[in-house]
Design a protein that fits this description.
The complex is a heterodimer of chains A (208) and B (644).
Chain A (H helix, E strand, L loop, with lengths): L20 H4 L10 H15 L9 H22 L1 H11 L9 H10 L12 H17 L3 H33 L5 H26 L1
Chain B lengths: L5 E6 L3 E7 L15 E3 L9 E2 L1 E4 L5 E3 L1 H9 L4 E3 L9 H8 L18 E3 L2 E3 L1 H20 L5 E6 L5 H13 L3 E7 H12 L4 E8 L4 E9 L2 E10 L4 H20 L7 H17 L5 E7 L5 E7 H13 L2 H11 L8 E5 L6 H11 L12 H13 L10 E3 L6 E5 L3 E6 L7 E7 L9 E7 L9 E9 L11 E7 L5 E7 L7 E2 L2 E2 L5 H7 L6 H4 L1 H25 L1 H4 L3 H19 L3 H14 L1 H16 L26
Parallel strand pairs in B: 1-10, 10-11, 12-17, 14-18
Antiparallel strand pairs in B: 1-2, 2-3, 2-4, 5-6, 5-7, 8-9, 12-13, 13-14, 15-16, 19-20, 19-22, 21-24, 22-23, 23-26, 23-27, 24-25
Helix pairs in contact in B: 3-4, 5-11, 6-7, 14-16, 14-17, 16-17
The chains are: A mainly alpha (208), B alpha+beta (644).
Chain lengths: 208, 644
């Protein structure tokens, strides 16, 4: 059900109701979505809901417009990005993300503990080698040889991240066609992706 | 006709301006081709009001050019570049104080809002800024002959919450309802966007007197969507001046054995001399810095453009990092940027242009006056907020928050809850609980910034969630909602969910004025302005009438006049007689309504004159260059300013 944004009579903004981001746009809880259409809808709703439009309206309508527009912006920001859209769906479905998720990272950091790291099996060897190189860089600086090796690993990481997009899309398809088990696959892809992104970040830090 | 005019204000570090966008062309203000956006000049006819506030011998407040004179003779009685102090605490400005002759109150406590000594009294930065705003308000009121109560004020895109709040407070103190704070580069894009109705991605590079911003926007069918912004709120022309001053001071100490830093008035003369040289070097290959020293000796030094560029190169280079970061945050490569727009006085420096054009690999736009474009854009936004017009009805600005919002978590780390470059209004909801049995309050520390550790971020507010019903540890569930509004200002509300009790919270900004303090500072908004308003209104209405009648005399000599129908001409003639009659009376409202009628009747004439003058090739250029009208430099024939 699409949330009611406007009064049917006068076309003015209505108070914000708690709603999930998919419902806000009147969308089913599916992951393959037409991003161009979403953008169009975002612009159309912005034109009608934005505080600029209500700058001379009553205080009550101004408050509603502010609430509604923040909902609209939060919803659009979350849904337009494939990864945050997937994470949001998992959150809605009550599925806890594991080690690599941003929330887990922040929680671990807040609690002051080292985050549990499960290295994806296929990456064990590479991750081990990379950590050695990174350690070497920290100790003795980055010479041309080391730089070359790190850049090569970075390139291969980027390629892997690319194939993960496809894996993620495959999981979306399953979910959208009604396969609830697809969530496990999404969690797996996102975890591995998070791990790779951390490695990428470490390399960039050293190469900076 | 009673309509509340909403003006656009650029409250700059060096200069401030007020602008207005009329709905449709106007014969009396032809300097705004087609679009009707124009700067409202001060009584001296100048568009720029220097952002200087001073006290004269009788302790009357002076603003603008008059204050600048005081700055030279008794620098301790004048304040400039106060924007640098807005929303900042003592610790933030220590470095700054070495370079600026700000005299802070002696009894400042840590965490208190700064107070600056001026004559016998001390003033907070919002109060000083309010004096500038009030001068602009007066200039606008003088122009319209009617009170002005609402404004859109621009701020650097990279201003944090405290700096924005301080700007809003300044507006309130000046007796202005601030309908919106707009980011300066975004405002500039609105001014440019009026002319170019096309879609695409633009980068706005805004290098002003004290601040630097860069914003990347996507324009689509009238929607101006900011994708990423970055900047430095303490990087501007001031830094170039300070560098040149310190080089010259060392020079003087070495050659002439005088420590000029000990003589504030001599430093001030030196400042003026280097600024003049800086400006000259934008168009000349060499310039001389000449200053008379306290012992009567003369310091003289020739600076070539090459030397100048070598000296300021490191400062200009500091703007390029934020540009790259903004591009990266926007997920764009340089090739994907369609247009680059230059804003701010410091972009007149050829080196700056070269560096920007090299970075973005394209020629930058400079068609609109870089000192005025932000104010013009603010006026466009003011027009949108006031209900819009034919030109602005499809325009909508979607801006972002420049800095991430976070809360301090265990271990002193920052947990980000709203990321930078999120479209505003934006919100986040966080849940908190207690750690000890029976705990009735939870302390929350709100931060702004990108750093990992809370101590490296800007502290926005510390507050306690109070009134939590006593429960076992971990059981209360307190929901706190953080909302950044369209001004980029944070609002916090909280609720204890288990008991359904709305928790009482007080958000005390780490550096800021309380509502009550602001209330007490509000300049007698009903000061002299109201007392002799009636008299002033009459004078101003007559002046406004003179303006349109003079314009009409000119208009009749224009070829466009012959293109009007007979009945149109007769209508104009009749309304002219009516206005002249009203002018001989003393009913200012009768004069104003006659002006409005005549304005209406001559709109067609104004359009025809503009079409003829502008031509299709020149459309969108500044009217100055077309020779129609007198341009913004012409003195406005209106009464003198009053200073309190």
């Amino acid at each position: 059900m699409r949330a009611e944004h406007f009064c049917a009579e006068c076309g003015h903004v209505q108070p914000a109701e708690p709603t999930d981001f998919f419902s806000f746009f009147g969308l089913p809880r599916k992951l393959e979505l037409d991003e161009t259409a979403l953008e169009r809808e975002f612009y159309a709703l912005s034109r009608k809901l934005h505080p600029d439009v209500y700058s001379r309206a009553s205080v009550r309508e101004q408050a509603w417009s502010l609430e509604k527009t923040s909902q609209l912006n939060d919803a659009y920001r979350t849904l337009k990005d494939p990864v945050s859209r997937t994470e949001y769906l998992l959150l809605l479905e009550g599925i806890q993300m594991e080690e690599q998720s941003k929330t887990a990272t922040e929680k671990a950091r807040a609690a002051g503990v080292d985050k549990k790291q499960t290295v994806p099996a296929e990456l064990l060897e590479e991750a081990f080698e990379l950590n050695m190189l990174l350690e070497e860089a920290k100790q003795g600086g980055v010479d041309d040889d080391l730089r070359g090796q790190l850049m090569a690993i970075r390139t291969s990481l980027a390629a892997r991240l690319n194939t993960m997009q496809e894996e993620l899309r495959a999981a979306w398809k399953q979910w959208d066609s009604g396969d609830v088990e697809a969530t496990a696959q999404m969690v797996d892809v996102l975890n591995r992706r998070g791990y790779l992104r951390n490695l990428e970040r470490d390399i960039n830090e050293v190469l900076k | 006709m009673v309509d509340d005019k909403v003006v656009g204000i650029d409250l700059g570090t060096t200069n401030s301006l007020v602008a207005y966008m009329a709905s449709g062309p106007s014969l009396a203000h032809p300097d705004a081709p087609g679009k009707g956006v124009f700067i409202l000049p001060g009584e001296d006819g100048s568009n720029l009001v220097p952002s200087v506030v001073a006290l004269d011998a009788d302790n009357h407040v002076l603003v603008g050019n008059a204050a600048r004179t005081v700055l030279l003779t008794s620098p301790e009685r004048a304040v400039y570049s106060v924007k640098r102090l807005m929303g900042r605490g003592l610790d933030d400005v220590r470095g700054e104080l070495k370079l600026f002759p700000f005299h802070l109150a002696d009894d400042l406590a840590a965490g208190e809002v700064l107070r600056i000594k001026l004559g016998e009294r001390t003033y907070t930065p919002p109060e000083i800024s309010a004096q500038i705003l009030r001068q602009l308000k007066r200039n606008a009121e003088r122009f319209f002959g009617a009170p002005v109560k609402q404004a859109v004020i621009t701020v650097p895109a990279y201003f944090n919450d405290a700096q924005r709040q301080a700007t809003k407070d300044a507006g309130r103190i000046a007796g202005l309802e601030v309908l919106r704070l707009v980011n300066e580069p975004t405002a500039a894009s609105l001014a440019y966007g009026l002319d170019k109705k096309q879609n695409g991605t633009i980068a706005v590079y805004d290098f002003g007197g004290g601040t630097f911003d860069v914003s990347i926007l996507r324009l689509q069918d009238g929607i101006f969507e900011v994708i990423a912004t970055n900047g430095d709120t303490h990087l501007g022309g001031d830094d170039i001046d300070n560098l040149l001053i310190s080089i010259a001071a060392d020079d003087i100490a070495g050659d002439l054995k005088i420590d000029i830093r000990k003589y504030p008035d001599a430093v001030q003369r030196l400042r003026n001399a280097v600024i003049e040289a800086k400006i000259a070097l934008s168009s000349q290959e060499a310039a001389d810095v000449e200053v008379e020293l306290p012992d009567g000796k003369q310091y003289q030094r020739r600076i070539t453009r090459e030397m100048f560029e070598r000296m300021v190169q490191p400062i200009v280079a500091r703007t390029l990092g934020p540009c790259r970061q903004a591009l990266k945050d926007a997920g764009l490569s340089v090739e994907q940027v369609d247009e680059v727009v230059l804003v701010g006085g410091s972009t007149r420096i050829p080196l700056v242009r070269r560096e920007v054009e090299t970075l973005f690999a394209r020629k930058a736009h400079t068609e609109l006056n870089p000192d005025e474009v932000v104010a013009l854009g603010a006026a466009v936004q003011a027009n949108i907020l006031a209900g819009g017009s034919a030109e602005t009805k499809d325009m909508l600005l979607l801006d972002v928050t420049p800095l991430s919002l976070g809360i301090e978590a265990l271990g002193g780390v920052t947990a980000k809850i709203i990321h930078r470059n999120s479209t505003i209004p934006a919100s986040a909801t966080e849940h908190f609980t207690t750690g000890v049995e029976g705990q009735v309050s939870v302390a929350i520390h709100v931060l702004q910034g990108e750093r990992e550790m809370a101590k490296d971020c800007r502290s926005l507010a510390r507050f306690d969630l109070k009134g939590i019903p006593p429960m076992p540890a971990g059981l209360p569930r307190i929901e706190v909602r953080f909302l950044i509004d369209a001004n980029g200002i944070l609002h916090v509300s909280a609720r204890e969910q288990r008991s359904g009790k709305e928790a009482e919270i007080q958000v005390q900004p780490s550096y800021g004025l309380t509502d009550e303090q602001v209330e007490n500072m509000i300049l007698d908004s009903f000061d002299n302005a109201e007392k002799d308003l009636a008299e002033r209104q009459l004078i101003e209405a007559r002046n406004e009438a003179e303006t349109i009648l003079t314009a009409l005399v000119k208009g009749r000599r224009n070829e466009a006049w012959t293109m009007l129908s007979m009945s149109e001409q007769e209508k104009v003639d009749e309304l002219e007689r009516k206005l002249r009659l009203a002018m001989s009376g003393s009913d200012y409202q009768a004069i104003r309504s006659s002006i409005d009628e005549l304005n209406q009747a001559t709109m067609h004439l104004a359009e025809l004159m503009m079409d003829a003058a502008v031509g299709s090739a020149l459309r969108g250029k500044n009217m100055d260059s077309t020779g129609v009208g007198e341009g913004p430099e012409a003195p406005h024939p209106i009464g003198k300013a009053e200073f309190s």
